Amino acid sequence: MLNKVSLIGYLGRDPELRYTSAGMPIGNLRIATDESYVDRDGKKVERAEWHNVVVFQRVAENCANYLSKGSLVYVEGSLQTRKWQDQQGQDRDTTEVKASRVQFLDRKAWREGGQEASNGRESNLQGSDGSRDDLGPAFPSEPSGMDDVPF
Asked: Residue ranges per domain, the chain?
């Protein structure tokens, strides 16, 4: 069986970081991806999809330290559904991406010492010759419109 998710998107809000009672860091990211298509009338339609992502340990701390609302990231992981009860005692389900790897793609994270985070290990994001590749626009939307996102 295969349960694998790969996303490239923008953060809709700053990462949230909390710690379990045992001291393990857990982070939550809210990532927007979008797609566009042409409808029957020939009009271009753009649609955003929001994804909840959970990160753990050192990856969670790196995300909290180097990412912010509007940051472009690549996330790799698996889908996970968990059950919980709301304040009224109603059973609820939440499906989220359990990240195994988060790669920072925007220039802001590069300038601030951004790093690739994968399973608690870190490595600088640069080529073997020490240069950093210009990734260009890896996502069709621009983060400039993120200021009016309600999250």
From this structure: 5-123
* Backbone phi and psi for residue 121, each to the nearest 5 degrees, phi listed first: -100, 155
Contact of 47 with 78, CB cutoff 8 Å: no
- Cα 91–97–102 angle (5° rounding)? 150
Q: Which two tokens stand for residue 38?
A: 């042409």
Rounded-to-integer distance, Cα 146 and Cα 71, Å: 10
- Quickly name the fold that domain 5-123 has: OB fold (Dihydrolipoamide Acetyltransferase, E2P) (2.40.50)
What's CA 14's distance to the chain center, in Å?
A: 10
Residue type, 59: V
CA-closest candidate to residue 146, choices 72, 55, 76, 96? 72
User: What confidence category does residue 119 fall into, taking pLDDT thresholds of 50, 70 and 90?
Assistant: very low
pLDDT band of residue 108 (cuts 50, 70, 90) is low
- Which of 12, 32, 9, 10 shows the shortest CA–CA distance to 151? 12
